Amino acid sequence: MVCLGNICRSPLAEEVMRSKIKKYGLNAEVDSCGIGGWHAGQPPDDRAQKTALKHGLDISHQRCRKITLNDFDNFDVIYAMDGEIFSKLSQMAFQGGKEQQKIKLFMNELHPNKNLPVPDPYSGNMSHFEEVWKMIDATCEKIAEKMI
Ligand code: 4NP
Predict the structure, then answer these.
(1) Known catalytic residue: 76?
(2) Catalytic site residue 58?
(3) Angle CA 23–26–32, to nearest 5
(4) How far is the CA of 3 from the centre of ligand 1 (A)?
């Protein structure tokens, strides 16, 4: 799960997906990271933590990290939270000689071919985080259903 800062959207997506993996007993691993390393080593944004807790998930153990080329080897699918992230990942894969096919736009799993973003809630308020939660929860549920 990849977003810009790895403190709002992708930490939520990581933990929601982990909970679906557990719920359906899937044999899978999930991690998250950011295109930028500005918050490297930090826990997720307080608002993301509060939103997750409200829905029964604790994300306080997560630590922000920046994506590396190794991620393209270590994971089968790389989900971009929006089109800008998708483009950056695509550029990175091209320059590093990695597989483009692994990169997918996250929301397309729920709404195929619509190319919808998970909107960046960083400059928003708690209601934006709640909206992001709903999108992530529904999409991770769909991804898990396809993996059963
Ligand atoms: P995220 O949100 O990509 O969902 O983690 C952001 C977090 C931090 C920044 C931008 C977006 N930032 O510019 O620091």
Answers:
(1) no
(2) no
(3) 85
(4) 7
Pick the residue whose CA is nearest to atom 3 on ligand 1.
4
- In order of their start, the domains of the chain are 2-147 (3.40.50.2300)
Strand ranges in 41-108 using DSSP code E only, listed in sequence order: 78-80, 103-105
122-132, pLDDT tens digit by residue?
A: 999 999 999 99
Asked if residue 147 lies in contact with residue 24, where contact means CB atoms within 8 angstroms, the answer is: yes
Query: In this prediction, what percent of the chain has a pLDDT beyond 90?
Result: 100
Q: Is pTM beyond 0.70 here?
A: yes
User: Which ligand 1 atom sits closest to the C-alpha of 38?
Assistant: 14
The tens digit of pLDDT for each residue in 21-66 reads: 999 999 999 999 999 999 999 999 999 999 999 999 999 999 999 9
Q: Are 49 and 27 in contact (CB under 8 A)?
A: no
User: How many residues does the structure list for the chain?
Assistant: 148
Distance set, CA 30 to CA 21, 91, 94 (Å) = 9, 22, 23
Q: Taking each helix axis as running N to C, give the angle between helix 46-54 and helix 126-147, from 0 to 180 degrees, rounded to the nearest 10.
A: 60
Residue 34 Cα to ligand 1 midpoint, Å, equals 8
The answer to whether 137 is a known catalytic residue is no
